[in-house]
Amino acid sequence: MDASHPLRWVAIAAAAVVALLVAAAIVAYAAIDTQAIVRYAADEVSRLTGRTIAARGRVTIAFWPRLAVVAHDVTISNAPGAARPELARARVVKGAVATWPLIRSRQLVAESIEVEGLDLALETLPDGRGNWQFDGAGAAAPAAPVGATASAPFRLSGKVAVVDANIAWRANGARSVAVAISRLDVIPQEGGRYAWSGTFDLDATRWTLGATSGDPFMTLRDRVPLDVDAKLAGGGVSVTAKGRVERRDSGGAAVLDAGIAWEAGSERMARWAPELARESGRIASRVDLRDKRYTFSGIAGAIGATKFDGHATIDPGARVPRVGARLHADLVDLSRERPARREAAVATPAEPSAAPFAALARVDGDVDFVVDRVRLRDGVEATNARGRAIVADGKLVIDPLDVALAGGRIGGRLRADAATSHVHLVVDGRGIEVARLLGAFDPGRNASGGVTSFAIDLQGSAPIPQRFLARASGSVRIDVGPMRVKGVALDAGGEVLERVLDTLNPFRRVDPSTEVQCVVARLAVQNGVAHAERTIAAETSRLALSASGTIDFAHETLDLLVKPRARKLSALPSVELAEVVRVSGPIRSPSVRLDTIGAAKTALTIGGAIATGGWSLLATPLLNAGDDPNPCATARAGGKVATRGNASSAAGSPATDPLAPLRGLFR
C-alpha cells in the first residue's frame, strides 16, 4: 500500500471534521435567538440606569472575529416630569467589541461605536436635576467575591462617531437651545489621550471643534478628573479652554484658563454684542467652578484701544442668582456712533405691558468699576470715572457715580424699583469750565472761564427707561459764570442757537469776542414738561435776555419766548434788537421767528395772566417797558423779583389799568 494513503485519509478526516464544525457553527448560529439576546442586554442596562432602553427596529449580531451589533430605531426613556417620553432616539446604532478579550478576561474593548441620526433632548427638571442623570433604580448588583474583578473594565480602541445628530437643551423656564451636529469623532491616542474633532451648527453659525482630553469613560465611570485642551471657532470668534473638569457629589467642578477672541466685523459677535463687533477684541480669565458657583479671576482683555482687568463671581444657585464684580478700564469710547439694529430685531413698543425693570427682581448684584478715561463726542474727554451698582430685592442703587470733566467734577446717584418702575435721578456738577468744552468742540477757538455748576433732581415712573424724561418731575438748575469767547461767538451751540442769536442781535458777528457774564436756568419739571417763567437768562457785555415758556420732553417739543435787552455802553455802537423771538416746534429743529403780538399772547398764557382786547395797540409799548436790567438775578430768584422802578410804577397805576397783567412780563 502506498505510504501516502494514511496521510490522505488523515487529511480527508480533518477536512470532514472542519466541515462538520462549520456546519455545526452555522446551525448553532441559525438557532440563536438574537432578539432574546437584545432583550436581555436591554433589560440589564435598564436595571443599571433605571431607564427603559429598546430597539424597535431590526437588530443584527455577529460573533467573530468581533462581537458586532447593528440596531435600528433605538430609544432611551426620559425621566419622570420631562417634556417628552424619550431622552434620546437614534436611527441606527453600530458597535463592535473585541471577542477574545471579553472571553479571556471579561474586558470590554470597543473597537468602534457609531450613532447615526441621534435626537437628544436635555433639560433641567422642576426639581433642579438634569434629565440625563440616571437613578440606577434597579436592584443593586451583588457584591463581587474577594479577589474577583469588581466590574468588566471598558476601553476604547477605535473611533466613536456621532453623525447627523440634533441636541436640544432647555434649562428650567428658559428658551430651548438647538445644536445640529454634522459629525463628531472621538479617537483614542497614545498615552491615554483622546482627540476630539467635529462641526456643528448653533444659532445660525457653523462651529468647528478641535480638542484633546484624558479618558472620558474613566471620568464617567470612576469620577477621575478629566484634563481638557479645547478650541472652538466659528463666525469670526474663537473660544479656548485648558484645564481640568470633574464630577463631584455637589455637581460639576472645573478649573480652566479660558479665553474668547473675535475679529473686527465678526458675524457671531455682531449677534451677541453689536457694539463690540466693530473692533477686534479678546478676553481671558481663570474660571473656577465649584459648588455651582463661578469665580472669574485675573480677567484681562482688550477691545480696540481699550484695555481692562478685574475679577467677578456668579452664584446661580443662590435664592436669587447673584453677580459680583470689580472692574477697571483704561478707556471707554462713547464718541462713536452706535451700530444699527439688526433687521430681524423687533421694535420695542412705546408702552410695554411688562415693567422694564423686571430683570432686577431676577438677579442680585454688586459691581464696582473705575474708568481712567471716558471719551465723549467732539473731542471731550472725562477722567477718573468711578461708581458702584447694587441690585437687591428688585431695587437698583447706583451710588456713588462720579467723573472729572473740564476741570470740575460731576457726581450723581440713581435709584430704580422693579415693582413700581419708579426712578429717582440726582446729578450735581461743580467747577466745570464751559470754555474748555468749547475749545474741545472747536480747537481753533480761544475761550476762557465759564465755571459752571448744575443740579438735576428728577423722579417718576419709567414705562421704558428711554422715556424717563417723558414722565419725570423735579427741578433743573444751571449756573454759568463769566467767560470770554473770541472769534465768532457761541456758534458751538449749533444751528438753532445761531439762528436765535442772529435774530436777537444781528451785530454779534462783527464783535471780536463775546464777554459772557452769566447764563442761568431754573426749570420746574412736572410730568415731563419743564416750565420757565423768566427763569432762563443770559447776560453779555452787549446783550441781556430772558426767556419764558415750556419744554415738553414727552413730545420732544419746545415753545419759548426770548426777550432781549441791549446794554448801552460808551465806545460801543447802539444795536437794534428784536422785540421778542419765539422759538417753537421740535427740539431738534425748531422754528425761530420774530413775534410781537402773538408772543405777548403766548407769554400771558405761560405766566397765567388774563387780558382782553387792544393787542395791536398794547403789545409794543408793553414789551418796550418790560426791560429787566438783571435777568440772571431774576432767574436765580425764580423769575418773580420786581425791581424798585417797576414796583413804584405799579403803585402809581390805577387798579383798573388794562396793562397791569402785562407789565413786568419779562422781568
Strand content: over 45%
How many beta-strand elements?
33
N-to-C CA distance: 150 Å
| Shape by Cα distribution | elongated
Helix content: 10-25%
- Low-confidence regions: 3-10, 12-22, 24-28, 137-152, 342-354, 488-494, 597-625, 642-667
Structural class: alpha+beta
Report the total helices: 12
Tell me the radius of gyration: 41 Å
Sheet having the most strands: 33 strands, mixed
Mean pLDDT figure: 77
Short description:
The chain has twelve helices and 33 strands. By secondary structure, the protein is of the alpha+beta class.
Task: Annotate the secondary structure layout.
Blueprint (H helix, E strand, L loop, with lengths): L3 H28 L2 H16 L3 E3 L3 E4 L3 E12 L8 E13 H7 L2 E9 L2 E5 L30 E3 L3 E11 L6 E12 L5 E9 L2 E9 L2 H7 L3 E9 L2 E12 L2 E12 L4 H6 L1 H4 L3 E10 L2 E11 L2 E10 L6 E12 L30 E12 L5 E12 L2 E11 L2 E10 L4 E12 H8 L5 E3 L1 E11 L11 E8 L2 E4 L8 H10 L8 E14 L2 E12 L2 E10 L4 E10 L14 E6 L4 E4 L2 H11 L7 H11 L5 H6 L7 H8 L16
Parallel strand pairs: 5-7, 5-8, 6-8, 18-19
Antiparallel strand pairs: 1-3, 2-3, 3-4, 4-5, 4-6, 8-9, 9-10, 10-11, 11-12, 12-13, 13-14, 14-15, 15-16, 16-17, 17-18, 19-20, 20-21, 21-22, 22-23, 23-25, 24-27, 25-26, 26-28, 27-28, 28-29, 29-30, 30-31, 31-32, 32-33
